[in-house]
Amino acid sequence: MTTEWFSNVIGFDDAPFSHHHAGAVPVVGTVYAQSRLDGILVGEIEKDGFDAASRLAELVTTSKFAEHAQLVMLQGITL
Questions:
Q1: CA–CA separation, 24 vs 49, rounded Å?
Q2: Where are the beta strands (DSSP E) in 1-79?
Q3: Phi, psi at residue 44, to the nearest 5°?
Q4: pTM of the prediction?
Q5: Spatial distance between the Cα atoms of 37 and 39, rounded to a whole number of angstroms
Q6: 8-75: CATH topology
Q7: How far apart are CA 50 and CA 9, in angstroms?
Q8: Among 10, 31, 39, 56, which residue's CB has the most CB atoms within a 10 Å radius?
Q9: Cα-Cα-Cα-Cα dihedral of 45, 50, 56, 59, to 10°?
Q10: Domain locations in the chain?
């Protein structure tokens, strides 16, 4: 059985926030190449908003990691 490695994997998670919080929520993305941390992406999305996908796509496509990104993983209810 062979193991396939991805060149750049980006994992996003939202920061903790109160159940009653309204407005922007910070998000952090970590960029890994195999087991090496290559970079961090930081941005904001609206809690329960409709902009999460477009905001995360913008963070990725405007970063220096966009050309080599092969996988984006999401974690969290807000995302």
A1: 9
A2: 8-14, 24-33, 36-46, 69-75
A3: -140, 150
A4: 0.79
A5: 6
A6: archaeoglobus fulgidus dsm 4304 fold (3.30.2170)
A7: 24
A8: 10
A9: -70
A10: 8-75
**In this structure, what token pair is assigned to residue 38?**
């290559």
pLDDT in 10s for each residue of the chain, 79 residues: 666 666 789 999 988 787 777 788 889 999 999 889 999 999 998 877 788 889 999 999 999 999 999 999 998 655 5
How confident is the model at residue 2, as a pLDDT?
67
State residue 45's pLDDT score.
87
Q: What is the CA radius of gyration of the chain?
A: 14
pLDDT of residue 25: 87
Rounded Cα distance between 74 and 18, Å, is 20
Phi, psi of 34 (to 5 degrees): 55, -115
Question: 19 to each of 8, 15, 28, 31, 43, how far by Cα in Å?
Answer: 33, 12, 19, 28, 20
